[in-house]
Design brief:
about 270 residues, alpha/beta, Rossmann fold, seven-stranded mixed sheet, two-stranded antiparallel sheet, about 30% helix, about 25% strand, globular, methyltransferase activity, transferase
């Protein structure tokens, strides 16, 4: 696809602008994080368990809060992100918090060109695969970076949730569940600060669950489980309702909001 590199450059520019806004947002709560609060949610904490002494590769890490949270728990972490500004802030936080994580700025699909070591865990979460046009090279890279017996874990917004256009502040069903054609959206604000005046320009793709599962199987991973949940840990869609447990659900819930998948390299 001739214009594909342009998709990533437009997305990189948008994410570079988002970093400073997100770093000052209530959602990311950077001051509480610096004081010791974990940025990790119950799903990923339960799935990965005790990571002390394990090597962990975090894909599409934004400005590194989750990477550094795993590092605080004793993992030896490397974070990867497309955004120069995100990686720069991650490195600053790592130094300020006196942790030993490393961060690499690159397209996630090119990770194996920049990182040659293998890991006990490859981890990615919330709003990651929708930036990728094809999951087969992504899954192949994951398999390359895992040790034999190593674990891959993803927790992600459900593909049904991405069938809707949210740019006008409400959910309008517009896109196919698994859409090969690129989706372009341009809107004011970001999911972490909807009143921000920055203009987000984004190219993305929808991937059904079968795309995710089959790409990983084809890459040589064994699927351990796939779970779907009617709640989100983040208030990122219109009109969500906060539960007593601090999660968010949709009024008149008819479909899952997130899924999690764990796989092993045989």
């Amino acid at each position: 696809m001739k214009d594909k590199p342009n998709y990533f450059e437009v997305n990189r520019a948008t994410w570079n602008k988002k970093v400073a806004i997100h770093a000052h947002s209530d959602m990311y709560n950077l001051e509480a994080f610096k004081k010791g609060k974990t940025s990790l949610m119950p799903y990923e904490l339960k799935a990965l368990g005790d990571v002390k002494g394990k090597s962990l590769l975090h894909l599409q890490c934004h400005f590194g809060q989750d990477t550094l949270s795993w590092s605080r728990m004793g993992a030896k972490c490397v974070g990867v992100d497309l955004s120069d500004e995100g990686v720069k802030l991650a490195q600053q936080l790592n130094k300020e918090l006196q942790l030993d994580a490393e961060f690499v700025c690159c397209n996630v699909l090119d990770t194996s060109e920049h990182i040659k070591e293998t890991f006990d865990i490859v981890f990615t979460s919330y709003g990651t695969i929708g930036w990728l046009p094809d999951l087969k090279p992504w899954a192949k890279m994951i398999a390359e970076r895992l040790k034999v017996g190593g674990m891959f874990y993803i927790v992600e917004f459900h593909p049904i949730a991405w069938m809707f256009d949210y740019t006008n502040g409400k959910a309008e069903m517009k896109y196919h569940y698994s859409q090969d054609e690129v989706i372009y959206e341009e809107y004011e604000g970001t999911y972490a600060n909807q009143t921000s005046k920055m203009v987000s320009k984004e190219y993305g793709w929808n991937h059904g669950l079968s795309d995710v599962v089959n790409a990983l199987i084809e890459a040589g991973l064994q699927i351990d489980y796939l779970n779907e949940y009617d709640e989100s840990p983040y208030d990122v869609f219109p009109d969500l309702i906060r539960t007593e447990a601090g999660m968010y659900t949709i009024k008149n819930q008819l479909f899952p909001i997130i899924f999690e998948l764990k796989a092993t390299k045989l």
